[in-house]
Design brief:
Elements: H1 8-24, H2 34-40, H3 42-52, H4 57-66, H5 71-82, E1 100-105, H6 131-134, H7 156-161, H8 173-176, H9 193-201, H10 205-216, E2 225-240, E3 245-263, E4 272-281, H11 285-297, H12 315-321, H13 324-332, H14 339-363
Antiparallel strand pairs: 1-2, 2-3, 3-4
């Protein structure tokens, strides 16, 4: 569209040059390296990977640098790059029960089997500015982080053993191949729960946070308990048919959240607890909890619960608006030239005003 503007191509080239200068900033200040962003802005890197649907900390850090810290623009860059990559196959389902834990808490059981691990978190800080960071003061030595060497069972599995938790359908590698891939096929309604979870895991964190908060305030009656929030490393493997066994090829950090919600029961189901689920790349607790709350809200129809007018229970509303790339693309397109459209509306308004003036003169 800009090509139609007189001198548009040259103006765009100059805009690119200006952007590069603005990105670099004051040349007297040392350049920020990709490794620095990856290591010291890790939570922003994790968000870009999650919403960009591509696990690569170096590329996510590069995208953040190129985008001048604009997370959504960085996600856009990662998504665009992702489309250029070949696809060799699908991994087998990740076993989060075998996670090497670095953080694990439960709001439902104080003495959780396997123990609670506080891990690296802002939860217990005072939220006061630390001016030592501005002065470059080195942090105090901390005990060496040691992930749990043994598998730590999911806390909610103990409720399941008592029949108090609604069982989830068992999954296997063969069925996993049949799950629709949102990155390669358009979203269709009604969406299955696996497809909904795909959309939520790459959805905009702020959008999900607002929806999750709305369910807690009564728009969806979804005041849940965090049954378990765990962060740790999981092994990713792919099945090799020609070899007859799985090959592990990656170790990635993920955040998993399971919420516990009360369910009064139905004609076919006894009173029991139900689950909301969230899983995202990296350390992203707010996103995982929000995802679990919205996932549970979207299960209202499946569970036979009363459907009100809560936005978080409206599948089409949630899934059609949660993607920040689609949302920002549609929003920002109004910055592009709409000269012809506006001139038509401008002429229409002028004509209406002329006609109205003529009517008033005739009435006088």
């Amino acid at each position: 569209m800009y090509v139609a503007v007189k001198g548009g191509e040259r103006a765009i080239e100059h805009a690119h040059d200006w952007l590069a200068q603005a990105r670099r900033g004051d040349m007297a200040v040392p350049d920020l390296g990709v490794a620095q962003i990856r290591e010291q802005l890790a939570l922003a890197v994790d968000r870009v990977m999650a919403e960009g649907s591509l696990h690569d900390p170096d590329l996510a850090a590069l995208a953040l640098k190129q985008a001048r810290g604009d997370v959504i623009e960085a996600v856009f860059l990662i998504r665009a790059f992702r489309t250029t990559l070949p696809r060799f196959g699908a991994s087998v389902p990740v076993d989060t029960g075998d996670m090497q834990i670095i953080r694990r808490i439960s709001a439902t059981f104080k003495d959780a089997p396997g123990g609670q691990v506080l891990g690296p978190t802002f939860d217990y800080t005072h939220r006061l500015l630390d001016f030592d960071l501005a002065d470059g003061v080195a942090p105090p030595p901390a005990p060496e982080a040691a992930a749990s060497p043994d598998p730590v069972p999911h806390i909610l599995s103990h409720l399941g053993e008592e029949g108090l938790m609604q069982p989830e359908p068992a999954g296997d590698a063969e069925n996993a191949q049949d799950v629709p891939d949102l990155t390669r096929a358009p979203l269709e309604f009604p969406a299955s729960r696996p497809l909904r979870l795909q959309a939520l895991t790459r959805a905009d964190e702020g959008f999900l946070l607002s929806l999750a908060y709305s369910t807690q305030r009564g728009y969806g009656r979804n005041h849940a308990f965090v049954g378990e929030l765990r962060i740790g490393h999981v092994r990713v493997a792919a099945h090799m048919p020609e070899l007859g066994f799985d090959i592990e090829f990656a170790d990635i950090l993920v955040t998993e959240c399971e919420t516990v919600n009360q369910f009064q029961g139905s004609k076919s189901e006894p009173a029991q607890f139900t689950r909301g689920y969230g899983l995202v790349f990296g350390q992203s607790e707010r996103k995982a909890i929000s995802m679990a709350l919205v996932d549970r809200a979207l299960r209202a129809r499946e569970l036979g619960e009363d459907m009100g007018d809560a936005p978080a229970q409206d599948e089409e509303f949630v899934l059609s608006h949660c993607d920040n790339i689609q949302s920002s693309g549609f929003l920002e397109h109004i910055k592009l030239p709409h000269y012809v459209d506006f001139q038509a509306e401008l002429e229409l308004i002028r004509k209406l005003r002329r006609d109205a003036g003529a009517v008033r003169e005739a009435a006088q």
